[in-house]
Amino acid sequence: MLSRFRFSTRWHFAAAPAEVWAALADLAAWPQWWPGIAVSQPLAAGDARGLGRTAALTVRTPLGADLRFELTASAVRAPEAAVLRAVGDLSGTARVRLRAVPATASGSVCATRVDLRWDVESDRVLLALARPAARLSHGRVMAAGQRGLAGLLSAR
Q1: 75-83 CB contacts, 8 Å cutoff, 24+ apart
Q2: What is the CATH T-level fold of the domain 3-155, as seen in this structure?
Q3: What is the pTM of this model?
Q4: Which candidate among 84, 101, 106, 108 keeps its CA 20 to 30 Å from the CA of 63?
């Protein structure tokens, strides 16, 4: 049974897009700041822009299911956007877009808005049976990622 999922998430950070990009581009470091990422094993470094960069991920979900998949950068326009291809328990694409936004009403400090859109399929029976819970689970994993990355960026 193949289930299709579309998820959209928006993150905000009090950091410049280049700083946020650098943290997101370091796939191997994700488990250090993103509680839902249990494993991120680099498989390919990709080119100088990050095109082709690949990691094997294990995402620990609040549903109690581990999702294992490879994530490969298939399009990169640093530090603005990337398209990532997922293959494994989740198959499809993730689109990431970073935009500079004013952090204050006067616009004197730079902040970053990150828009993430997942369009994936899975043949995992648990995800098909728990479809409404899968959306909540995704939201929790992504919220934990935002908190973790905000902590990392504020410590720099």
Answers
A1: 75/51, 76/49, 76/50, 76/51, 78/21, 78/25, 78/49, 78/50, 79/17, 79/18, 79/20, 79/21, 79/22, 80/17, 80/21, 82/50
A2: Alpha-D-Glucose-1,6-Bisphosphate; Chain A, domain 4 (3.30.530)
A3: 0.90
A4: 84
